[in-house]
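In response to reviewer comment 3 from the previous cycle, which asked for concrete evidence that the modeling workflow produces usable outputs, we include below a single protein chain processed end to end. The sequence was submitted unchanged, and the resulting structure tokens are shown without manual editing.
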Amino acid sequence: MGFHYDIICAGTALVDSIIKGFDPNPVSASGFRAASGSLNVGGEAVNAATAAARLGMKTAILCSLGEDDAGDMVAASLRRNGVCTDLVLRAAEHPTPVTTMFVNEDGTRKSITNGAHRYNFHPERYASRFTDARALVLGSLFRAPFDDPEIIFSVLRAAKTAGQLVIADTKLPNFRPLTLQDLRDCLPLIDYITPNEDEAGYYTGENEPDAMADVFLSCGVRNVVIKLGGKGCYFKSADFSLFLPAFEIKAVDATGAGDNFVAGFASEIIRGSAPKAALAFANACGAICTTAIGAGTALKSRDQVLKFMSASGSFY
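The workflow returned the following structure tokens.
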């Protein structure tokens, strides 16, 4: 079966207000200072789609944006970066979410969400919009719109019926908690699940990557990739497991690093790479992302990633 796109990313789209070097000591009764502040488009689906397009994938996004300035900003950025926005839904009654991000000097961050992040745009109603790609990437399993088991199952079933590869990135719940048991019918439809270490520990109750992976595999997921941040990543399937260390790099902002990792992994798997090579490439994408403020700033092209890997002594 022929597909129009290589990758369709489905999930959250928003604007990040990124504050770096926040000083908690007030300078006046109502005033504070920070080293810098910037506005960047974000959200898991936006970050992954932007990265995938820059890596040479024919990429589209299924997300919901408000009929507002923030939504216009997101849509313009997507188009500028080569992401097809024909599948985007615009809703006047639901504002585009805006997240405030506090970034620490070591690149770690904390975020503030609001009620706009709860809007579930029912992607299951638009199967024709997300089934015309070789791979479907869910940017935010366990968060809206993928925080309802019926919606998740409907989307995954449509994707597998269409013959798509399904890659599900995960997030910790912010409004509606779900467990792996809640998704017992959904998880066997996922080809690759890509939680970070905190998320994997939260959902499995385990402390070690190998044990975490075993829980996901026992639930029917075919392949597990656990992102370990500055330590690298861990992969396990029914056939084998492997650990790949992270690249040495000076992190400025870790925002979106996991999304860039997923985009890199998906793009290389689609190109036919073996898991080890795809994971090495993904590690490089995540590392490059952390070298600048904002999720979609540093990563530019596949050639950039390959040169970075070569300079770091990583070949595949």
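Residues 52 and 263 are 5 Å apart (CA to CA). We consider this sufficient to address the reviewer's concern, and the full set will be provided in the supplementary archive.
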